[in-house]
Write a structure and sequence with these properties.
The chain is mainly α and 459 residues long. Helices cover 60% and strands 4% of the residues. The chain has two domains: 94 residues, Orthogonal Bundle (Fumarase C, Chain B, domain 1); 248 residues, Fumarase C, Chain A, domain 2, CATH 1.20.200. β1 and β2 form a beta hairpin. α6 packs antiparallel against α19 and α7 runs parallel beside α19. The longest helix is centred in the N-terminal third of the chain and has 37 residues. The structure holds arginine. The site of arginine (ARG) has 11 residues, from α6.
Length: 459
């Protein structure tokens, strides 16, 4: 069949133009949303007396049949179909003749593509939220298992203070919690029905846009037709949420990479998530963690691409907007898969607790605790800081640790010091004492886990 808009044209499209113009190769995945939108539209048209009940019924039966055939792989789309909207309408007209030609009453592809994309994003946000929740569940389980196992806490990648493994994992729980909230907000902003905005200015035909909103499960109706067909903010909101989530994935993936290194040996990533080297027989590389770290690049790229496409486009619809889809789909696929793979990988990862313990005596991790102990003895903090700083310097020069300094040595460092003034120097003692709200004390980590579980259950 010729192009549905062929009326005013005398020449066929050049082959390369047809290919350049077509979006069917990638927007065919909107077929289900497109058919949903059409069924709601024709239902409303018949309720409004614009088409007859019989016509509506025939169109709905034919649309459902088309959907079934697409799902069974019976339909071959061609570049000549241009996009999914044209393809389905052509099929419909091919089957129903003149009745099929009524579906596009009071509708344009401009509002059609907007309604399809919004429906699609809403559905995919639900899937992404499921995967994010899975990630949170896995993190809670691991955090609970290791809530009191001590590891090195870093700042500037330098040994800073002892923390628990559970505490470290719960930091990621908070990041993914904000991602969940961001996707919920993105869902709310997507939940507006643009259908019936038509090409850009609404219509003289007496349609009911609130009715199609209701039929399609949209909470709201867009307010201005021109904005409705040229707005892609909801896609950008979605891609922003996805970019931040991928950034969190990338950060945790990096921790997995270095924790898994020979130098750290905090974890040993399960064989099923690693690959070997084609030349070095001993190698077991953390490829999945590296891919998870790297996938963020394309997701940022997709966001920047669409921001750039949208920049400077005048009202209302412009074909530039067709460039919104490939990046969107890629972002959805990448994020969904990354979350699933990472959740599985974390679930299968155990920490080498003994190995982690061995590394705790480097780097004076308890220095801050000694200073805080001095504060409790009424020494002003800056002075306490200086005293402990002197102890560190002495130990470094003399290759000693805090816990093997003698009384004499302490007095030599500063006349105000003595063994009696030192607190419990064990890592367990340090960690146990950090009970401030949000701190790393095991009791506090358990509280964080409990509150996290409570929040997740309410979702
Ligand atoms: N394939 C188009 C897109 O994705 C659909 C809308 C086309 N509208 C038009 N007037 N050419 O944006």
């Amino acid at each position: 069949m010729a192009n549905l808009w062929g009326g005013r044209f005398e020449k066929e499209m050049d082959e390369i133009v047809e290919e350049f113009n077509a979006s069917i190769t990638f927007d065919k995945r909107l077929y289900d949303c497109d058919i949903q939108g059409s069924i709601a539209h024709i239902t409303m048209l018949s309720e409004q007396g614009i088409v007859s009940k019989e016509e509506k019924n025939k169109i709905i039966v034919a649309l459902n049949k088309i959907k079934e055939e697409i799902e069974m792989g019976k339909i071959q789309f061609s570049l000549n179909d241009e996009d999914i909207h044209m393809a389905i309408e052509k099929l419909l007209i091919g089957r129903l003749g003149d009745i099929g030609k009524k579906l596009h009453t009071a509708r344009s592809r401009n509002d059609q593509v907007a309604v399809d994309t919004r429906l699609y994003i809403k559905k995919e946000i639900t899937n992404i939220l499921d995967n994010l929740k899975l990630m949170e569940e896995v993190l809670l389980l691991k955090a609970e298992k290791y809530y009191n196992q001590i590891m090195i806490g870093f700042t500037h990648m330098q040994h800073a203070q002892p923390v628990t493994i559970g505490f470290h994992l719960m930091a990621y729980f908070q990041m993914f919690r904000r991602d969940i909230e961001r996707f919920q907000q993105s869902y709310e902003r997507t939940d507006y029905n643009p259908l019936g905005s038509c090409a850009l200015a609404g219509t003289t035909i007496p349609i009911d846009r609130h009715r199609t909103a209701e039929l399609l499960g949209f909470k709201n109706v867009t307010e201005n037709a021109m904005d409705s067909v040229s707005d892609r903010d909801y896609i950008l909101d979605f891609m922003n949420a996805a970019s931040i989530a991928m950034m969190h994935i990338s950060r945790l993936a990096e921790e997995f990479v270095y924790w898994n290194s020979q130098e750290f040996s905090y974890i040993s990533i399960d064989d099923s998530f690693c690959t070997g080297s084609s030349i070095m027989p001993q190698k077991k590389n953390p490829d999945m963690a590296e891919l998870l770290r790297g996938k963020v690049g394309r997701v940022y790229g997709n966001l920047i691409q669409l921001l750039t496409v949208m920049k400077g486009t005048p009202l209302a619809y412009n074909k530039d907007f067709q460039e919104d889809k490939e990046g969107l789909f890629d972002t959805i696929d990448t994020l969904k898969k990354s979350l699933l793979i990472f959740a599985k990988m974390i679930d299968k990862t155990e920490f080498n607790v003994e190995n982690i313990k061995k590394q705790l005596n480097k780097g004076f991790l308890n220095a801050t605790d000694i200073a805080e102990h001095f504060v409790k003895m009424n020494i002003p903090f800056r002075e306490a800081h200086e005293l402990v700083g002197k102890m560190v310097k002495y130990c470094e020069i003399n290759k000693k640790d805090f816990n093997n300094l003698t009384d004499e040595e302490l007095r030599e460092i500063d006349t105000r010091l003595s063994l009696d003034y030192l607190p419990d120097l064990s890592m367990e003692g340090c960690v146990k004492g950090r009970v401030s709200y949000g701190g790393t004390a095991p009791s506090e980590v358990l509280r964080q886990i409990k509150s996290g579980k409570h929040w997740l259950q309410k979702m």
